[in-house]
Amino acid sequence: MKQIPVVAGGIAIGPVHKKDVMRASIMLERKPEYAIILAFDVKVSPEAQELAEKMGVKIFTAEIIYHLFDKCTAYMEQIKSERRLATADTAVFPCILEILPNCVFNAKNPLVLGCRVVEGIAKVGTPLCVPLRNNVGIGRIVSIEVNHEAVNEAKKGQECAFKIEQIPGGQTIVFGRHFDEQSQLVSRISRESIDLLKANFKEDLTQDDWKLVVKLKKIFDIL
Fold first, then answer.
1. Most buried residue among 6, 96, 181, 212 by CB atoms closer than 10 A?
2. pLDDT at site 12
3. C-alpha to C-alpha distance for 46 and 16, rounded to whole angstroms
4. Cα Rg for the chain, rounded, in angstroms?
5. Is the pLDDT of residue 142 over 50?
6. pTM of the full predicted structure?
7. Taking 70 as the threshold, does the pLDDT of residue 3 lie above it?
8. Residue 27 contacts residue 35 (beta carbons within 8 Å)
């Protein structure tokens, strides 16, 4: 069963008043998802309800404790899903790809390459670069196909066709000139993307994936 964090001194008996809402509102600046009041089998004063709606504090009420728990956990899951969706394009997952022999289907924008995922998770939207060529960026993954079927991600060991589009206005990257079959392609992570992974996608990465994050941090000199 999931645990619900409770602020120290945040437990009281009796109706919910404005002072309770004010106390809960402190979390709006720290962790907004925790700016909530769980009112088990008690009344909520009209003034408290009005203030909560104005400030953005959530009040959940129920006469059965399990129903209250379910409401709270469902709200937390909703917040988590919204944050994952909002940060999906910025939270770059770690991956290393190797180009398969004779699997270059288009040598310039958009690049279409057959690759094997050596480590990590390659997702649609992942920016890629060649570390041994001064981290030259080759573009962003816009589609992945496995056996001619489109997928959103590919994991370690999978062989897929990757379509990679270059950033508009950037350098024109051509296979055979800027990189070749011997080049490994890695996801271009950043301090921001790592922080977003930790905050919203921590459970999606294995221990080996986090070790790869550490490896890539060294490549890109990320503190």
1. 212
2. 74
3. 9
4. 24
5. yes
6. 0.71
7. no
8. yes
Instruction: List the one residue out of 13, 56, 51 whose CA is nearest residue 31.
Output: 56
Instruction: Considering only the C-alpha atoms of the chain, give the largest distance between any 2 of them, rounded to a whole number of Å.
Output: 73
97-107 pLDDT, tens digit per residue, is 999 999 999 99
Gap between the Cα atoms of 36 and 25, Å rounded:
8
pLDDT range class, residue 1, cuts 50, 70, 90: very low
Q: What are phi and psi of 94, to 5 degrees?
A: -80, 140
CA dist., res. 52 & res. 14, Å (int): 17
CB 181 within 8 A of CB 116: no
Residues in the chain: 223
The pLDDT of residue 100: 96
Residue 177 has a CB neighbour count (10 Å cut-off) of 10
- Looking at residue 15, the DSSP 8-state letter turns out to be -
Q: Does the pLDDT at position 8 exceed 70? A: no
CA dist 39 → 12, 33, 53, 160, 163 (Å): 10, 16, 15, 51, 52
Instruction: Give residue 189's identity as a one-letter amino acid code.
Output: I
In a 3-state reduction of DSSP, which class is residue 147?
Answer: coil
Q: Is the N-terminal amide bond of 110 cis, ω within 30° of 0?
A: yes
Q: What domains appear along the chain, each with residue ranges and CATH number?
A: 18-86 (3.40.50.10050), 95-219 (2.40.30.10)
